[in-house]
Specification:
With about 425 residues, the chain is mainly alpha-helical. It has a single domain, classed as Alpha/alpha barrel (Glycosyltransferase), CATH 1.50.10. It is built from 16 helices and 15 strands. The protein has a three-stranded antiparallel beta sheet. It has a three-stranded antiparallel beta sheet with strand order 6-9-10. A three-stranded antiparallel beta sheet has the order 13-14-15. Helix 14 runs parallel beside helix 16.
Length: about 425
């Protein structure tokens, strides 16, 4: 699914940059095997993309898995077709149910059918996550900029964009305007929302509420700051597409106004003055004075702020936040004999996520740090040669998910960026 010559040239660039045959071979194998293992072209020309070892398509994961392929697709028309097919399938799903995070290949009713929420047979899971709606907008913008193809933005895009703006606007005042309720009765507190499915009480901030985090865990305080940062960025992309491609000034204006609301909310509620680090970003807030100073391994995270495009890697508030996140003051920063890095409340204690290690490298301004993180990822596969969801800092043979295609993709993206391969789309 990727041209052999394109992959061979990229592998040689990685080999030259890292000076490491094992890293280069891990990169080559992941790039060659990842997409064929998860992608299926459908008769309608769209592409259904599995989320690794789960037989469903997550809006977030299906876009995140494509990031390294976007860097190489300018030279590969067939790869472009496959990636555009993923986008078009995502857009159809968004219109079908913008509150859903994961979908079935067809309307077969598979998935979390026991949840206390109304679900279409197309929907695998209906955990509402703000980032799930960010990823298709980002993918559309990047594909349009990288390929220059007119068929990237088709009639499906406008309908999905309208649905996204409408939902995000409603969820600015979740308490009074939202129809969304979610309960799962599996005795896992992070799998459900309190107050009979409404979630913890919040007060409007200008930001847009989210029921769940990128980890699929319930938010604690309602307003997920890195998710809103990502929303701000993609609303900027939407404004550009609405103006330059769709010629729809009304849609462009709505995107601009909502982005301004969100940015104002982040500025007023999303930062905290820390006694040690100074002004830092909070992970979540409730609009009533409570804030959560952590980071979660899944992207978008606070660590990934430069990667999603909200602020530069040398931004003062980001750097202060980064110092906090990569320290013991972040309760999900784990140290051990074999690794140190950010984990997640979604997985057991003392387990670091390869995704977070890759994000740490991708947001670093140090080539030495990127090289060190690639070597750490190389050495912590537990003998499998694959990235996992998480692994134990004292024993990499203890891990969750033997094969996690999103993590493999992040490793590959880090290798490409370290080798100087950039799409140059902004």
């Amino acid at each position: 699914m990727i041209d052999a010559e394109v992959l061979a040239r990229a592998t040689e660039e990685v080999r030259r940059a890292t000076g490491d045959e094992v890293i280069a071979e891990m990169f080559r194998r992941s790039m060659a095997e990842n997409l064929p293992a998860v992608a299926e072209r459908l008769p309608d020309g769209t592409t259904f993309l599995l989320t690794g070892d789960i037989p469903a398509m997550w809006l977030r994961d299906s876009a995140a898995q494509l990031r390294p392929y976007l860097l190489l697709c300018p030279e590969d028309r067939a790869l472009q077709d496959l990636l555009i097919g993923v986008l078009h399938r995502q857009l159809e799903y968004v219109v079908l149910d913008p509150y859903a995070n994961a979908f079935n290949r067809e309307a077969n009713g598979a998935g979390h059918t026991g949840d206390e929420i109304e679900m279409s047979p197309w929907v695998w899971e209906r955990k509402y996550e703000i980032d799930s709606l960010c990823y298709p907008l980002e993918l559309a913008y990047r594909l349009w900029r990288i390929t220059g193809r007119a068929d990237v933005i088709d009639e499906r895009f406008k309908a999905a964009a309208e649905a996204i703006i409408a939902l995000w606007t409603v969820e600015q005042d979740h308490e009074n305007r939202s129809p969304y309720r979610f309960q799962r009765h599996d005795d896992v507190p992070t799998d459900t929302l309190v107050r009979e499915g409404r979630g913890r009480l919040t007060r409007p901030t200008g930001m847009s509420w989210s029921a769940f985090r990128p980890s699929d865990d319930a938010t604690e305080l309602g307003f997920n700051v890195p998710g809103n940062m990502f929303a701000s960025v993609v609303l900027g992309y939407l404004e550009v597409i609405a103006t330059e491609v769709l010629k729809d000034s009304g849609l462009a204006d709505r995107a601009k106004e909502l982005r301004a609301d969100i940015d104002d909310g982040i500025a007023r509620y999303g930062t905290v003055e820390h006694a040690v680090y100074g002004r830092v970003y909070a992970y979540e807030v409730d609009g009533m004075g409570e804030s959560l100073l952590i980071d979660d391994a899944n992207m978008p995270s606070l660590l990934s702020i430069p990667l999603t495009g909200y602020a530069a890697a040398d931004d003062a508030t980001y750097l202060a936040t980064r110092r906090l996140l990569l320290s013991d003051d972040n309760p999900y920063y784990f140290r051990g004999e074999h690794a140190v890095g950010i984990g997640s409340p979604h997985t057991p204690p003392n387990q670091v996520w390869p995704i977070a290690l890759a994000v740490q490298g991708l947001t670093s301004t140090s080539a030495q740090e990127r090289q060190q993180l690639l070597e750490l990822l190389r050495d912590t596969t537990g003998g499998t040669g694959q990235m996992h969801e998480s692994f134990h800092v004292d024993d990499p043979t203890v891990f969750t998910r033997e094969w996690f295609s999103w993590a493999n993709a992040m490793f590959c993206e880090l290798a490409l960026v370290h080798a100087g391969v950039h799409a140059g789309f902004r």
